[in-house]
Amino acid sequence: MNYGNIKSYDIADGTGVRVSLFVSGCRHHCKGCFNAPTWDFNYGKPFTRETQDKLLELLAPSYIEGFSLLGGEPFEPENQPVLAELLEEIRRTFPDKSIWCYSGYLFDKDMVPGGKVYTPFTDRMLSCDVLVDGEFIQELKNLSLQFRGSSNQRILHLKDGKLIKEGL
After folding, report:
1. pLDDT (0 to 100) of residue 104
2. Spatial contact of 91 and 43, defined as CB atoms under 8 Å apart
3. Among positive and negative, which fits the CA dihedral 26, 149, 115, 89?
4. Which residues, including other chains, have CB under 8 Å from residue 43's CB and lie 6 or more apart?
5. What own/partner pairs with CB < 8 Å and gap ≥ 24 does 53-57 have?
6. Is the pLDDT of residue 168 over 80?
7. How far apart are CA 83 and CA 78, in angstroms?
8. Contact at 8 Å (CB) between 107 and 135?
């Protein structure tokens, strides 16, 4: 798996100050995407053990509220094996920090058994605290929305992979 960028101090992609990883590879190709270079699965740098160690180091300060995983598309089946392990390592190391995942795929359609991107790793990926789901739709773009780009996208609060609340 490759990644396009790591943000050490991100305040746009979840609550508080966060560390964010932008993975490579996306099949959505949303019109108006802010990160189109990451559509290419080969874009950026290879994700290595050193990359994971760097993320854990960046997450260590107490002022970092959590981790955000974006893309590209984290839930592309090719990305899930590496990211499931990463999210589990973050949860083990920093159990009090929140994990946000962003996906153009839908939680209740594409990420369920038999869904478009459901793999043996999907449930492990859904150990995140918040999932922002739905493709970016330029015609529904709304700059007043918090933590999402278009009004069709949902902010879903999860517990053990189950929906507990929608919205902020």
Report:
1. 96
2. no
3. positive
4. 2, 4, 24, 25, 37, 72
5. 54/6, 55/6, 55/19, 55/21, 55/86, 55/90, 56/89, 56/90, 56/93
6. no
7. 10
8. no
Residue in 71, 74, 72, 96 with CA at minimum distance from that of residue 85: 74
What is the pTM (predicted TM-score) of this model? Answer: 0.94
Q: What is the pLDDT of residues 133-150, one digit of tens each?
A: 999 989 999 988 999 999
What is the residue-wise DSSP string for 20-57?
EEEES--S---TT-TTGGGGSTT-SEE--HHHHHHHHH
Is residue 87 over pLDDT 90? yes
Regarding beta strands 45-46 and 17-23, do their DSSP bridges make them parallel or antiparallel, or are they unpaired? unpaired
